[in-house]
Amino acid sequence: MSEHVRAELRRTGGFAGRPVHVRLDSATMPPADAARLVQLVSTIDLSRLGGAHPGLPAGADLMSYDLMIERGGRRWQGTVADPAIPADLRPLLQFLTHYSRGPGS
Fold first, then answer.
1. Strand runs (DSSP E) across 17-102, as ranges?
2. pLDDT tens, 43-96?
3. What are phi and psi for residue 59, nearest 5 degrees?
4. How are beta strands 74-81 and 20-25 bridged, if at all?
5. Total of domains in the chain
6. 105 in a domain, yes or no?
7. Which CATH number do you get for residue 23?
8. Distance (Å, rounded) from C-alpha 10 to C-alpha 64?
9. How far is CA 14 from its chain centroid?
10. Residues of the domain holding 94
11. Which residue has the higher pLDDT, 54 or 4?
12. Average pLDDT over residues 23-37
């Protein structure tokens, strides 16, 4: 794998209120998972996302995602929340949330 990607997710909120925290590094992941992480990140235009959004809608049942992505020497960090999550970020958030339960789960 030629490209190196790191991603970190902290999810809060939601009906059950279970927080999620996961850090992934494509250099230390199983090859298939690393390839999927790189593919998901490569579909996101990080320059279009902007940064943190402190005025996000609040609500006890809304998910909020603090996300950090490093790719190709560039770093993006910000917060997104339901229902205003950009469509190109959703697959990565789902992958990271699923991966927080353990590889292969």
1. 20-25, 63-71, 74-81
2. 988 777 665 454 445 555 688 889 999 998 889 998 888 888 888 899 999 999
3. 175, 140
4. unpaired
5. 1
6. no
7. 3.30.350
8. 8
9. 16
10. 5-99
11. 4
12. 95
